[in-house]
């Protein structure tokens, strides 16, 4: 059954600026989450440099036995990572069209938000959770 586990946002310098878990996962503490962000940022940059494909911008999808990790990198270098159940459909569309739109509307347009700093926007959190709950409800995970 498809499920969205977590969302991470990494700034262009590789710093974790946002993380939320939507489903209780294994005991990920803050240090593990920070480590994930910095390692992903480095691997993403290395993959972009080593790729034989012209125009490659880095790793977009990592398949594992128990999860898939999808990455969407914006033109400014901000990365959105979403950890989902393997073979969850339309995650790239969710990241690019919905989550990124919420980020633009409620974070970037917030006059009190400083770019590249940790995201602490209540309206972003509220709309993000509502979106994820709607997706889970559509998939039959929430009644």
Write out key terms for the chains shown:
143 residues, alpha+beta, Beta-Lactamase, 5-stranded antiparallel β-sheet, 39% helix, globular
Give a short overview.
It is found in: Endoplasmic reticulum; Golgi apparatus, cis-Golgi network; Golgi apparatus. The chain is of the alpha+beta class and about 140 residues long. The chain has three helices and five strands; from the N terminus they run E-E-H-E-E-E-H-H.
Tell me about this structure.
- About 40% of the residues lie in helices and about 20% in strands.
- The chain has about 140 residues and is of the alpha+beta class.
- It has a single domain (about 5-135), classed as Beta-Lactamase (2-Layer Sandwich), CATH 3.30.450.
- Strands 2-1-5-4-3 form a five-stranded antiparallel sheet.
- α2 runs antiparallel to α3.
- The chain is globular and about 40 Å long.
- The two termini are about 15 Å apart.
- Pfam families: Sybindin.
- Part of the multisubunit transport protein particle (TRAPP) complex.
- One of its GO terms (cellular component) is endoplasmic reticulum.
CATH second-level architecture: 2-Layer Sandwich
Q: How would a crystallographer describe the biggest sheet?
A: 5 strands, antiparallel
Question: What is the helix content?
Answer: 25-40%
Task: Return residue spans where pLDDT drops below 50 for at least 5 consecutive residues.
Answer: none
Count of structural domains: 1
The order of strands across the largest sheet is: 2-1-5-4-3
Q: Choose one word for the global shape.
A: globular
- Average the pLDDT over all residues and give the rounded result: 89
Order of SSEs:
EEHEEEHH
Pfam families: Sybindin
InterPro entries: Longin-like_dom_sf, TRAPPC
GO biological process, one term: endoplasmic reticulum to Golgi vesicle-mediated transport
Keywords: Endoplasmic reticulum, ER-Golgi transport, Golgi apparatus, Transport
């Amino acid at each position: 059954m498809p499920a969205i586990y977590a969302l991470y946002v990494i700034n262009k310098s590789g710093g974790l600026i946002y993380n939320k878990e939507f489903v209780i996962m294994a005991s990920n503490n803050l240090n593990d989450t920070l480590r994930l962000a910095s390692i992903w940022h480095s691997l993403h940059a290395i993959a972009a440099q080593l790729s034989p494909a012209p125009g490659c911008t880095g790793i977009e999808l990592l398949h594992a036995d128990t999860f898939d990790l999808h990455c969407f990198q914006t033109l400014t270098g901000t990365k959105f990572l979403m950890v989902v159940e393997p073979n969850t459909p339309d995650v790239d569309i969710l990241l690019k069209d919905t989550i990124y739109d919420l980020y633009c509307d409620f974070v970037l347009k917030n006059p009190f938000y400083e770019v590249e700093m940790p995201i602490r926007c209540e309206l972003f959190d509220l709309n993000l959770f509502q979106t994820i709950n709607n997706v889970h409800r559509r998939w039959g995970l929430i009644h």
